[in-house]
Design brief:
single chain; alpha+beta; 5 helices; elongated
């Protein structure tokens, strides 16, 4: 008789284990769904909700800066021409895109396409820069051809190329001839 009781107890325990296991499994699955849902919702809130106001603010600041620069250049251009009748589009010199070979260690053919705009300085005009453009492109060619593909990696690469182009423009044309170099495209193949 005691054997029967022991056997029944063992059978009862065996039956209770799967029942308790299902409850634990349901609790674990429910907790996992809550954690993943909460994490996904939080990520969506932070990534989607916060970008729109920041983008509007950045665009507003950029537009304000562009207008201030255009007014300053318009006044300088107006002084040279005897009035403010000068066109705002004439304040920049669009340089045709330059395509050069890059120097690579493995000998593979790599190319760089650079398209930029020159902003005339206080001692120059677009017409003067246009006449000296062949000299300037000739000064840029050796620098651009000596670049390696790894020189163009990272976020600071565009800034370094821009600064070097400005330095070479100052060396070639003289001080206050080129105020800034605005890079439009920098494509590496």
């Amino acid at each position: 008789m005691s054997d029967d009781i022991i056997v029944e107890a063992k059978d009862g325990e065996a039956a209770a284990k799967p029942k308790g296991g299902k409850k634990k499994l349901m609790i674990i699955i429910g907790a996992a769904v809550l954690v993943l849902g909460g994490g996904g919702g939080g990520a969506a809130f932070f990534l989607m909700g916060s970008d729109k106001p920041a983008a509007k603010t950045a665009e507003g600041e950029a537009e304000a800066e562009a207008e201030a620069e255009a007014e300053a250049e318009g006044e300088a251009e107006g002084d040279e021409k005897g009035g403010k009748d000068g066109k705002a589009g004439a304040a920049y010199l669009d340089v045709p895109p330059l395509v050069v070979n890059l120097r690579s260690a493995d000998g593979a053919a790599r190319f760089l396409k650079v398209h930029f705009v020159l902003v005339p300085g206080s001692a120059s005009t677009v017409e003067k820069l246009q006449g000296k453009l062949p000299l300037l492109i000739d000064a840029y060619q050796p620098f651009l051809r000596e670049l390696r593909p790894e020189d163009l990696n990272g976020s600071g690469a565009v800034y370094r190329v821009k600064e070097e182009l400005l330095v070479r423009a100052t060396q070639t044309l003289g001080p206050n001839q080129v105020k800034d170099v605005l890079i439009q495209d920098l494509v590496q193949q």
